Every structure is written in structure tokens, then in C-alpha cells.
């Protein structure tokens, strides 16, 4: 009877070890994209609409405005600071004004400004 109990308790441990060994054989890849359960639709199983990162432009998501955004922003900081943002549209507008007025950011023509802000709001907004 004691052997049966021991075997029953050991079975879940063996299953866990087997699963871990299978994962280890695949190899750990810290750069492998993983599902983020906090992203909209992730828990509902909806496909992600995130654009693929563009290595030519600091891994910013590919799409209209990526080039203009890259060249406007990397004059002062890396794209890493952009990629970690999740701001409201209003906050992006505020930050633009703050960077121009307080940080000395070059202010491009209105068309380029609109392209860059539209890109940032599309890809790095808390509202989408």
C-alpha cells in the first residue's frame, strides 16, 4: 500500500520533469517572442495585429512613418525608449511639445510632425 501511494505521488513529478526536459531540448531563446497576456485580445485568442519589427529602423514596428520616426527620434535617444512606451495620445502630444520646448528637439515641418505623432500613437498608444 505504501508503494502505491509513493508511486501516485511521484507520477506528477515525473510528468513535470518530462515536460521540462522537452522544453530544455528546444533550447532557451530569450529573444523568442512570447505571448503577452496583457496585450488586448491575447487572452481571447485573437491574432496579434502588431507589426513586425524593422531592423533597419532600430526594431521599431514596420509601417507608414517608421522612417520619419526613426530619424526624428534617434537624434537624441535610442529606439529602446520609444519601444517601451505605452502612452495616451494626449501624452504623446504633450511629450512632443516638451521635447521641443524644454529639450531642444528639432521641430520638423507640420507634415513630418503629423506623420511621426500618428506613427507613435498607432504603435505605442495606451488607447489601442
Automatic annotation (TrEMBL):
Keywords tagged on the record = Signal
Q: Which interval of the chain is the signal sequence?
A: 1-24
> Care to name a GO molecular-function term for this sequence?
electron transfer activity
The family database entries (InterPro entries) matched by this protein are listed as:
Cyt_c-like_dom_sf
Region spans: Disordered: 28-62
* Top-rank taxon, per record: Bacteria
Q: What Gene3D superfamilies does this protein map onto?
A: Cytochrome c-like domain
- Name by which UniProt lists this protein: Cytochrome c-552
Identify the species of origin: Oceaniovalibus guishaninsula JLT2003
Amino acid at each position: 500500500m505504501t508503494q502505491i501511494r509513493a508511486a501516485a505521488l511521484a507520477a506528477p513529478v515525473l510528468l513535470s520533469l518530462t515536460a521540462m526536459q522537452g522544453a530544455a531540448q528546444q533550447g532557451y531563446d530569450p529573444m523568442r517572442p512570447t505571448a503577452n497576456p496583457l496585450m488586448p485580445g491575447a487572452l481571447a485568442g485573437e491574432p496579434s495585429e502588431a507589426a513586425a519589427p524593422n531592423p533597419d529602423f532600430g526594431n521599431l514596428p514596420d509601417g507608414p512613418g517608421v522612417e520619419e520616426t526613426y530619424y526624428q527620434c534617434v537624434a537624441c535617444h535610442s529606439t529602446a525608449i520609444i519601444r517601451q512606451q505605452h502612452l495616451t495620445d494626449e501624452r504623446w502630444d504633450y511629450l512632443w511639445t516638451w521635447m521641443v520646448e524644454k529639450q531642444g528637439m528639432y521641430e520638423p515641418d507640420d507634415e513630418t510632425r503629423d506623420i511621426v505623432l500618428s506613427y507613435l500613437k498607432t504603435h505605442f498608444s495606451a488607447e489601442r
